[in-house]
Design goal:
Structural class: alpha+beta
Largest sheet: 5 strands, mixed
Number of domains: 1
Shape: globular
Number of helices: 4
Helix content: 25-40%
Number of strands: 5
């Protein structure tokens, strides 16, 4: 016996167009790469290079790896994690990274997460840092 389910027109969510997601992902990556000079200025570094920029997806958090180079020749290799979901949802990710660098790049276990791909084995969870910052004022 077959089961037939009646579905009312318009009761299903629209299917997202892949072109919109791809454009959003490309714009996300381009925005992070263009922000490299802003990251350097916020950290007091001479230069910054965005070595990795991964847009978010439904099943994956956004990710950014930045290498800062300072006047004394020192380098700092940092990894950041942002929200999962759409590139639109992660639009403020780069600005949050810049704010984190501007306040002195604080390292606290509350927003550091283990990350095997990061240079020092941990990444900064920007969403957790932002939430902690809002709570503490």
């Amino acid at each position: 016996m077959d089961t037939i389910v009646a579905v009312e027109p318009g009761s299903l969510p629209p299917v997202p167009r892949s072109g919109d997601d791809e454009h959003g992902a490309q714009a996300f990556v381009a925005r992070l790469r263009r922000a490299a000079p802003l990251f350097a200025a916020a950290a007091g570094a001479q230069t910054a290079v965005v070595r990795e920029a991964v847009p978010p997806a439904r099943h994956r958090r956004s990710r950014c790896r930045v290498v800062l180079r300072f006047a004394d020749g020192g380098e700092m290799d940092l990894s950041f994690l942002g929200p999962a979901g759409s590139a639109r949802r992660a639009a403020g990710f780069g600005a949050a990274v810049q704010r984190w660098l501007a306040v002195g790049a604080p390292r606290d276990p509350a927003w550091l997460v283990p990350d095997a791909d990061a240079a020092d084995g941990s990444a900064v969870d920007i969403a957790a840092w932002s939430a902690a910052r809002v709570v503490t004022g």
